[in-house]
Amino acid sequence: FDARVGISNAVHDDLYVRALVLSDGAIKAALVSVEVIAISAKMSLAIRRQVEHATGIPLSQIFLCATHTHCGPVTLHHFFNQGQPLDEAYLERLTSTVVDTIRQAADALKPRVLKTAMVPCGGIAVNRRTADGLPVDPFAGVLLVEEMTGERVAIGVFYACHTTVLGPNTLSITQDFPFYTLEALRRELGPEVEPFYINGAEGDLSIGHKSDLSAVGVIDSFRTFETAQRLGEKLAQAVLTGMTHLVEEQPLLDVRSAYAPLPLKSYDPLPEMAERRRLAIAALADSKTTLAAKQTALFARIEEYYARLYEESQTPEPKYLPAEIGILRLGGTAFVSLPGEIFVCVALAIRERSPFPRTLFLGLANDYIGYLPDEFASTTSGYEVVASRVPAEAGRVLQQHALQLLEQAREVVCAEGEI
């Protein structure tokens, strides 16, 4: 949180790495939940190279998905923590923990049954940029792992919402609301079942607070652990209710990836952006209690940061942001990996045109490119749009590349005659 003052002083609940390795005998893939705010492209590549060496799983078939908790260690530099020191010893330990966890999962491979569903889920995520709180992703994805004899082994929950029930005033380490989701599933399904959570296209989704206010330290009274528990358990109940709709998947995997060249915003020359920032900070000093002044200063700082990145880029004109996306097809379900905070409309458009019966999203996967707004949002500005490096057309580029990968996966499925 940009508005957070102070460092963590307690642990409410521990943060985990949880890995699921899949194989159909020919193809292997790893689906990994990492309970941190984000994973940089550099860290992702280092981890995946080590995993490839240790397990033989190709790095392009490994999906590292950050849950995006804001109540955990800093793992990368971005607009929200410019110049903040990183704990390199922690990052090394995190890297080795992720690698070891995936390796252990790969060593434990055995024949099992996989079942999936998209279950209706309402009353949790709210679109924080619209008056009516819509659109949101109306579904939670479920992936159930069973032994061949029927005993449940693990359950994955795929749901799009900022894990920011707790605000900048929370100084305890916590998974946020997914902690309560996973605990409720464990209580109901038994301690032998390992639950995990993966975020989705949550760029403009939260539990109702406005990002423009939250970013400058205005904290709604409902952002408490009690609310996190209520919403987390509500998500768990939706998953449990929807388990009657689970579909057993055929043991067929397909994994594909590509880099979508997203256009970058253009910025004024760096000296001009620096002067805007200086003036905004000066105005803030003269009006310490004005929200508008705080927001202007924050936005000016973000834009100057991106202008610096733009000028430092060695890429010839036109400049692009390479965004890694991937498809993990499991039977009739397709998982689309998204490398940052994608607005929900961008993902819903992919799902609408997807050739698969069930399409789910792996948010904040393998990289963190920041926000990717949809076209309507880009006309209304606000925190997320200012904090995005890409213009409106980037969403269309991402959609195009994702749909191409989905169509390629569908052609393989049709050739195999399964769906």
Short structural summary:
By secondary structure, the chain is α/β, with parallel strands linked by helices.
Write structural notes for this entry:
The chain is an alpha/beta fold and 419 residues long. The chain has two domains: 342 residues, no CATH class; 48 residues. Helices cover 36% and strands 23% of the residues. The protein is built from eleven helices and 18 strands. It has a five-stranded mixed beta sheet with strand order 10-8-7-5-12. Strands 13-14-15-17 form a four-stranded mixed beta sheet, with helices on one face. Helix 1 links the parallel strand 3 and strand 4. Helix 1 runs parallel beside helix 2, helix 6 runs antiparallel to helix 7 and helix 8 runs parallel beside helix 11. The C terminus is likely disordered.
The portion of residues forming beta strands comes to 15-25%
Distance between the termini: 45 Å
Overall spatial form: globular
- As for the number of domains, it is 2
Topology of helices and strands:
Blueprint: E1 10-11, E2 17-23, E3 28-34, H1 41-55, E4 62-66, H2 88-107, E5 112-120, E6 126-127, E7 139-147, E8 152-159, E9 172-173, H3 177-189, E10 194-199, E11 205-206, H4 211-214, H5 225-242, E12 247-248, E13 253-263, H6 270-286, H7 291-312, E14 320-330, E15 333-337, E16 341-342, H8 344-353, E17 358-362, E18 371-372, H9 375-378, H10 383-386, H11 393-416
Parallel strand pairs: 1-9, 3-4, 8-10, 15-17, 16-18
Antiparallel strand pairs: 2-3, 5-7, 5-12, 6-11, 7-8, 13-14, 14-15
Helix pairs in contact: 1-2, 3-5, 6-7, 8-11
